[in-house]
Design brief:
Mean pLDDT: 94
Radius of gyration: 21 Å
Distance between the termini: 37 Å
Number of strands: 15
Order of helices and strands: EEEHEEHEHEEEEEEHEHEHEHHHHH
Length: 324
């Protein structure tokens, strides 16, 4: 599936949900009584009984509920649809489900309070249900601020740090290490997004600027941002889509049509081909720079990206006083 799709699920003269989906995985969280089960059961009723259920679903794509019974066969027969999955679905945290979901051309709306680390979903696609009388909408769980900063609540922007921590151990680490070579800011890597929390817990007294790929950081955002909320003077979290997105967005690479892709990525990313937008932007950067001084390789970053003029353009997107 490709694109952004508006969804309206309503019961005659009753409860109504309106929201949109734009990536292959959308996560909806919230405590009991917030509407998650109600929405899922409405889709279940419509899946089983159609219009006779009293539920109306308005969307340009089919919307169906996934059930435990013969779920793999159901997914194999479901194409180009929005699939709703309840948190009580037993295989939800399994590798089998992750493999089937990420390899399909469907979008998935998943109701779950668990992290689901087997699914690399975006920090921007984690929602809670906002209710006003009988009307319900999705609102982002994590607050996005200027400079790709994220938090659970408003925090005072900080400008001075001891450490820039990146999850990247290859091109991203090379970029930040060269950019701050000889400066007081130390650049370190956690080696993966799943290890950022542990690294922070081992360095609680340091002032850390965290840079991670937001496109796949959804499973880890809650722990990191809760830790930030506890220690707002020590932790700042910056989550651009990906390091490759940062390079593309900076304008270092010139290509006709690139602006349109960056403006609305969902209109250009086929979910069956890319498990995350991070992978799409990496492939796009490789394609656009092939045979040029900016030829992109994850293992070794070209010198053209490391010269001060190029580095400064990328850093401007996540600028602060001594991270610029």
């Amino acid at each position: 599936m490709i694109g952004t799709h508006q969804v309206r699920v309503s019961r005659r003269r009753g409860t109504s949900f309106r929201f949109e989906v734009r990536r292959n995985v959308t996560i909806v969280r919230g405590d009991s009584g917030t509407g998650k089960t109600t929405l899922y059961e409405m889709v279940v009723d419509h899946t089983r009984l159609g219009d006779a259920s009293g539920v109306s679903i308005q969307c340009d794509k089919p919307c169906v509920a996934l059930t435990d019974i013969d779920w793999q066969n159901q997914l194999e027969q479901t194409r180009d649809s929005i699939v709703f999955v309840d948190e009580g679905f037993e295989p939800l945290a399994s590798e089998a489900f992750a493999h089937a979901a990420l390899g399909s051309d469907n979008y998935f709306v998943i109701f779950s309070r668990s992290e689901l680390a087997n699914l690399p979903y975006s920090v921007n696609e984690v929602y809670r249900i906002k209710t006003s009388d009988k009307f319900h909408t999705f609102e982002p769980l994590y607050k996005r601020r200027e400079g790709e900063r994220y938090s659970l609540s408003r925090v005072t922007p900080k400008t001075d740090f001891d450490v820039l921590l990146t999850e990247d151990s290859k091109s991203g680490l090379q970029f930040f290490s060269r950019r701050f070579e000889g400066e007081e800011l130390c650049v370190e890597t956690s080696a993966s997004n799943s290890k950022i929390t542990a690294w922070l817990l081992d360095h609680l007294d340091e002032h850390v600027f965290v840079v991670a790929d937001g496109a796949a950081f959804g499973p880890y955002a809650d722990r990191v941002l809760k830790l930030q909320r506890e220690r707002p003077e020590n932790i700042t979290v910056c989550l651009p889509e990906s390091f490759e997105w940062l390079l593309l967005k900076s304008g270092i690479v010139k290509s006709e049509g690139l602006g349109a892709v960056l403006e609305d990525p969902s209109a250009h990313i086929e979910s069956a081909s890319y498990a995350t937008w991070e992978r799409f932007f990496a492939a796009l950067l490789v394609e656009l720079t092939r045979g040029t001084p900016f030829a992109y390789k994850k293992a070794e970053l070209a010198e053209a990206y490391l010269v001060p003029a190029s580095a400064s353009r990328a850093m401007a997107l996540i600028a602060c006083r001594n991270v610029r």
